[in-house]
Amino acid sequence: MGDPRLLPYFAALLRFAGEKLRPGRGFPLLLTALFAALSIAAASSDPAERLSNPQQEARARALFTEVRCLVCQNESIDDSDADLASDLRRAVRAQVAQGRSNAQVKRYLTDRYGEFVLLKPSFSPGNALLWLAPFGIVMIGGAVFALRSRRVLAPVTPLSDEEEAALKGFGQGSAAETPHEKRAGVSEDRPKTIGA
Q1: Disulfide check for 21: which of 25, 26, 88, 114 has CB 3.0–4.6 Å away?
Q2: Is residue 89's pLDDT more than 60?
Q3: pLDDT tens digits, residue range 111-162?
Q4: What average pLDDT does this structure show over 76-99?
């Protein structure tokens, strides 16, 4: 399960927690120590899977963070506990142990599982639409916005002399006939009705 070399550390951690147990505050400390011990055990991998060369193991672990677990889909194979992630870790380690470069290992994985296996897929004609679509949508939206903001509203024509006089008279309570009333045929003799 976990790395057997970590057992002395777990024992020391539990011994420390047991010594510090005092009424009222010992139980939370013990729970914290147990949680830390279990977290360390869960995070460690089987030493039989590790590569003997530390540089190759470091390269393999770096590649683990770039490869997607096909079961979990939003986790790297480094974070996943799925059986397929374990198989992918073994495959990456085998490729690294054979002396393949990172690009060759990624190509091996994409040949078998497709571009989806990489958390950050490469830029290629096959997925160019996915990479360029957000930029295209922003550019189209900007062009539509620019064209709509440039559109001129109805032109504003200046008021005629009659309209200006009527406007001045309207504010002073004058009963002067407005150009609109002249066009509508409303005279001063007739009473003005609302809505007519």
Answers
A1: 26
A2: yes
A3: 998 888 888 877 777 777 877 889 999 999 999 998 888 876 667 788 888 8
A4: 90
Q: Please say whether the beta carbons of 63 and 92 come within 8 A.
A: yes
Torsion region of 177: left, alpha or beta (phi above 0 gives left; psi -120 to 50 gives alpha): beta
| DSSP of 70-139 | TTTSSSBTTT--SHHHHHHHHHHHHHHHTT--HHHHHHHHHHHH-GGGBSS----GGGHHHHHHHHHHHH
What's the Cα-to-Cα distance from 124 to each of 11, 82, 194, rounded to whole Å? Answer: 52, 29, 72
**How many Å apart are CA 182 and CA 196, to the nearest integer?**
14
The strand pairing partners of 76, in sequence order, are 68
Q: Which of 54, 76, 80 is CA-nearest to residue 67?
A: 76
Determine how many CB atoms are found less than 10 A away from the CB of residue 171. Answer: 7
Q: Are 196 and 180 in contact (CB under 8 A)?
A: no
pLDDT of residue 1: 44
Cβ(181)–Cβ(191) below 8 Å: no
Tally of CA atoms within 13 A in the half-sphere of 33 that contains its CB:
19
Is 117:110 a contact under the CB 8 Å cutoff?
Answer: yes
